[in-house]
Amino acid sequence: MRRKLAAGNWKMNGSLAAMAEVRALCEAHPAPTVDILLCPPATLIWPMASMRHDHPLAVGAQDCHAEAKGAHTGDISAAMLKEAGATAVIVGHSERRADHGETSQTVAAKGSAAIANGLLAVVCVGETLEEREAGHTLDVVGTQLADSLPEGANADTLVIAYEPVWAIGTGKVPTLEQIGEVHGYLRAQLADHLPGDADGIRLLYGGSVKGSNAAEIFAVADVDGALVGGASLTAEDFSPIVSALQKA
Ligand SMILES: O=C(CO)COP(=O)(O)O
Question: Residues in the active site (predicted)?
C-alpha cells in the first residue's frame, strides 16, 4: 500500500514570517494519516525543520548539486541540505530544466546524490503544451522518466511527480482521463525500469492543484498525492488539499 503524500513546493516564495503558516498547518493536522512535505527556499529549511518539533511534517529542498563539495558557487550539496534538516529534495522541476538548462542526465545525477545522502528524491517530469498538442505527451514523459531515474531508486527513495508544464501556475488542469493516462503509463514504465519497486513508488500530480479540485484528482487511479505550488504557501489553501488526500 502506497502511503499518500501531500507535497508543497514554495519555489522562490516565503520568509521567516511564513513559519506561522507552517505552525497553523501542523495545528490543523496534528496527527496526519498522509505524509506531508514542504519544500521551502533553502534559507528556510533549517527554520522550518526546527520549528515543527515532533510533528511528522517533512521538510525538503527544491534542488541539489550532484557533487558532494567543491568549486560550485551558489550551489548546495545533498549532504548540506540534510544537515540543514531536509529529508527530501525535488529534482528536475520544469522551471529548473527551463531556467537552468538541466537535462535529464543532470537530474539523474542530482537524484543519485540525493539518495546516496539519504534524501527522498522527488523527480519531476512533464510535457509542454506544444508537445501535448503534437500528441507526444507519453513519449516525452517516458523518455524523461527513463533518463532521469537516479541510482539507488526504489519505493523508499524515489517519488515521481507528473507536472504538465502548461498546467503549472496557469489554473489549467488536464482532464482526469489525461491525468489517469499519464500516471498509468508512468507506472507501467516504472515496472519496466524498476521491476519489484514500481508498485510501491508514489506518483504525484502537480499543476494548479487547489482545494476545489484536489478530491477529484486524488480519485484518479495511480495518483498518490500532489506536488502543489501556489496553494501550498498558506495553511488556509494547503490544509484542504491535505484533508482531501486523507479522505481519498
Ligand atoms: O510547479 C508546481 C509544483 O512544483 C505546481 O505549481 P502550481 O500548483 O502553482 O501550479
Answer: 93, 163
Rounded distance between C-alpha atoms, residue 19 and residue 230, angstroms = 16
Strand partners, 1: none
Q: Rounded CA gap, 160 and 197, in Å? A: 13
Q: Please name the residue that has the C-alpha cell 505527451.
A: 137
Ligand 1 contact, 8 CB (< 6 A): no
Q: Is 111 annotated as a binding residue?
A: no
1 pLDDT more than 90: no
CB neighbourhood size of 41 (10 A): 15
Indicate the class that CATH gives domain 5-247: alpha beta
Tell whether residue 196 is among the known ligand binding residues: no
Q: Ligand 1: does its nearest atom lie under 6 Å from the Cβ of 132?
A: no
Count the neighbouring beta carbons within 10 Å of the beta carbon of residue 211: 17
ipTM of the complex in this document: 0.99
Catalytic residues: 93, 163
pLDDT tens readout for residues 152-203: 999 999 999 999 999 999 999 999 999 999 999 999 999 999 999 999 999 9
What is the secondary structure of 127-163 as a DSSP string?
--HHHHHTT-HHHHHHHHHHHHPPTT-STTTEEEEE-
